[in-house]
Design a protein that fits this description.
The chain has 153 residues and is mostly helical. The chain is built from 4 helices and no strands. Keywords: Membrane, Transmembrane, Transmembrane helix.
Length: 153
């Protein structure tokens, strides 16, 4: 009563997966970018000084990893495969690590950009796995519906 069904929760997964693929397409192709530099790992300016730098590459990929790992804590666990758990954990770890490195200012230049690129690649692979799982789940559903319809005749 008043709960959210699994289909609406999955829409968040699918929306984030498509967003990760869109950010990856912008970062790795010649599509015009809404922010100034390629794989900057940084900064959409925030009004509060001293805050953690926000990077679209890291925020979207890390959010997808977090949402996928959150499914382990819910009744939606039956739809999570081990590769999804591994990719979700790796993506979330890399996003947190590179955000910390940018915030701490520990590494400037190439090191952070490589971690950001690897985070985005892991996020894109995770997004692909989430969307393929969705297609498999939909195929199984329609197969069951078809079998049910045929058995009623």
């Amino acid at each position: 009563m008043g709960g959210i069904d699994g289909s609406s929760v999955r829409l968040v997964d699918y929306g984030l997966a498509v967003l990760v693929l869109a950010v990856a397409a912008v970062a790795f192709t010649g599509i015009s970018r809404p922010y100034p530099v390629w794989l900057s790992g940084g900064s959409v300016p925030l009004p509060v000084p001293g805050t953690v730098p926000v990077s679209p590459e890291l925020v979207v990929s890390g959010s997808l990893g977090l949402v996928v790992l959150h499914r382990l804590q819910t009744a939606e666990m039956r739809g999570v495969t081990p590769i999804t758990v591994l990719l979700g954990t790796l993506t979330l770890f890399l996003a947190a690590l590179s955000t910390y490195l940018r915030w701490a200012g520990a590494v400037e230049g190439g090191g952070v950009i490589v971690i950001v690129a690897f985070t985005l690649v892991c996020g894109a692979v995770l997004a692909g796995v989430v969307l393929v799982e969705a297609l498999v789940r939909a195929g199984r559903y329609w197969h069951r519906q078809r079998r049910r319809t045929l058995s009623l005749r």
